[in-house]
Amino acid sequence: MRYVAPLFMALACPCSALIAQTTAGSATSTPTTSDVSAGTYGSGTSDPDSVGVSGGGSATAADGGSAQTDSSARFNKNNAMQRSTASAKDEDERARSRTMTHARKDGAVRSKSMSIYKERGEKPVITRDSSTSSPN
Measuring CA to CA, which residue among 18, 12, 27, 16 is closest to residue 103? Predict the structure, then answer.
């Protein structure tokens, strides 16, 4: 069995503890009863003084399959964005997952996740999750 360790990434600007924070997050994963699975997660926070995002993913593949994960983030003083992907495949199964999170300094935080599991000869199973918080 091949296993790719979960990735974790966090970025944040200085934060004041007395100011109200806005948060949002999402996560999805493919069925874990098969030979392949993939999952990702992400969350973000925002307050008038800072923005921050975090996220990661994991993927597993058995029977000589392959698995990959990737996470990246960008930020400046007004916005923070992160994207996590995970994929796994073997001869007759494929799984992939993606999460994207965007936090803005005005309090808007949005996180969207999607996972797809496909077995040869079957229709794909698609799972979606999203979370949004409105600007202050």
Answer: 12
